[in-house]
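Q: Could you predict the 3D structure of Uracil-DNA glycosylase?
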Amino acid sequence: MQVKIHPSWQAILENEFSKPYFKELMDFVENEYNQHRCYPMEDQIFAAFKHCSFENLKVVIIGQDPYHGVNQANGLCFSVNDGISFPPSLQNIFKELEKDLQIPYPKSGNLERWADQGVLLLNATLTVRQSEAGSHQNKGWETFTDVVIQEISHRKENVIFLLWGGFAKKKGTKIDKKKHIVLETGHPSPLSANRGLWFGNNHFSKTNKYLKEMEKKEIAW
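A: Sure. Here are the predicted structure tokens for Uracil-DNA glycosylase:
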């Protein structure tokens, strides 16, 4: 399986692609896609690294698994393909966005518009078997995405990391908090949101406030 990503990422991650664990991972993924219906589509597995170049990266949002429903996932965490109804977590993200920034509830759940502005929408595991949540965990993806987070932390400064929920917070241990801005809150899933752990976090307005202070272009959420 070929890894097609933005050239700026290629230079940073190419050493990783030659490591034994990554080759084993690609063999596993190729085999899974040949034998089962998996998501996202093969050409979207590395979409996060195509839409958001390393140079343009300003914000990182960390998810866990791609959506495993039919044609939902498009390679960006929390994002769905156009024309797909919004999963509950995405509904809660948009409700918080609407309240935080007083902007209309988005019509499309496709978050490519965020990624193209420098938001890396990174799932910890980049693939999944249809209707089987977590089916591609512990196969090597987590090692790869840990390296991605470490490289961002090491090579850049003042990146804003949005860590939503316990899983993202664990991934956050790879971030140098002296160099970067880390905002944490509960997960947008109904389970967490209904316990009062998501709504009112104001992460979208806070992110733009920090970007403005750094004289960087704000995100049009």
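Q: Anything worth pointing out?
A: The beta strands are 38-39, 59-63, 119-123, 128-129, 160-164, 181-185.
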